[in-house]
Write the structure tokens for this entry.
Amino acid sequence: MTLPDVPTDALGFAAGMLTTIAFVPQVYRIVKTRSAHDISWLMFGLFSLGIVLWLWYGLRTSALPVILANIVTLTLAVTILCLKWRYGRDSLPHPWRRRWSRPANPGSKP
Amino acid sequence: MTLPDVPTDALGFAAGMLTTIAFVPQVYRIVKTRSAHDISWLMFGLFSLGIVLWLWYGLRTSALPVILANIVTLTLAVTILCLKWRYGRDSLPHPWRRRWSRPANPGSKP
């Protein structure tokens, strides 16, 4: 007798879904706040590179779920890198950074 | 004749390494800048939940590399959630957020 492997597959599917869609709220947050300077270039750079390798691995092993999940994750991770480039100008001094990302400052003193 | 599968394994190993260590520079950045308000709670929450499921999947399939990589990733993702709790007080009004996370403000006017 063999144990049914459907629950294990479902587990892997749910895990893959969660670690993929997790990036959506980060994209949404950056777009909404127009601020990304707390986001690490290196984190999303290394992560994107890792996802490229996972994609390559999926193509080598002809694993369609791995390929599809990593295409979506790569798209989202690269979107975050683009948003970081747009809204995370770290080279600017601190007070400018906010002014740069927020045209109106409702909390400013007269 | 079968093709050697070592390169494919090496690919998977490198991919897993990169998507795991990627979180280290994000932890470092938050600790260094004492700021995490651009980090999305939902991203790291969903991601951590996904990693718990991957860990469970690894235990079910007795895949030691999956277990080990996900223990490390979970530790780092939960660390980021703790740092977000410490340095990303979104409920505070904007000027307070910075003061809260930076005891001294070198750019303040007299």
Notes: The two ends of chain B are 78 Å apart (CA to CA). Chain B has a mean pLDDT of 83. Residues 44 and 63 of chain B are 24 Å apart (CA to CA). Chain B touches chain A through 47 residues (CB under 8 Å).
